Amino acid sequence: MAGLLVGKVAAITGGVTGIGRAIALGFLRQGASVTVNYLGDDASKKHFESLQEEAPSDARLTGVPGDVGKKETGQAIVDESVAKFGGLDIFVANAGVSQFRDFLTLEEPVLDSHLHTNIKGTFWTTQAAAQRMVTQGRGGSIIGISSISAHLGGAQQVHYTPTKAAILSMMQSQACALGPHQIRCNALLPGTTRTALAAGDLANADKRKYLETRTPLGRVADPEDMAGPAIFLASDLSKFVSGAQILVDGGISISLQ
Prior knowledge:
The chain is an alpha/beta fold. It has eight helices and seven strands. The chain has one domain: NAD(P)-binding Rossmann-like Domain (Rossmann fold, 3-Layer(aba) Sandwich), CATH 3.40.50. Helix 4 (108-136) packs parallel to helix 5 (161-178).
């Protein structure tokens, strides 16, 4: 199989739906062996089964259920990648939650869920991946899925935007900490994307039209739009790119329209 990721082993959290699923399929099509993490409930198990069906016939794909906010889940993902595919070269911290809520009435469980999954989940899973990469001694690539919300505020996102800023900051600091081990760490910053997390927002015709009109490319992103930039960051095409942030938002964050 020819591809940019032939011989590489990748793991992706939240890898059975939305952006994570699109990245997983992109990696598989480029020749990588892929471990995907998913929550483990009935719905996510079905998504994993459908991913297996959609993957190329010769794909090397395995799955690990678990809550990324728990430290042991990150280790389980790494252990599965090593057991099935012999190592780990690429790690994508994609799993996340996003709920629009009023700031003045926000309740503690909502804040806790965002901190748990988005911040703790990214920290513990990338730490486990980095430990394995350091032990292997052959470098690697870690990608954190942040958001344009790392730079932009939102009236109903006071509990969410700081978690995405944290992921961006985490990738920058990890780039410093892991550079001596030749491990590159970068952030991908999607704009509004047609995923289950954005479904409620995009169901509002006026909001969708506003986003499309304000975006220079004239549309909202599809999950597949994130796969190419992720492949770039995972591959040797970006072998001297570390601590970077790649906006994948169709230009909306620089548009005043």
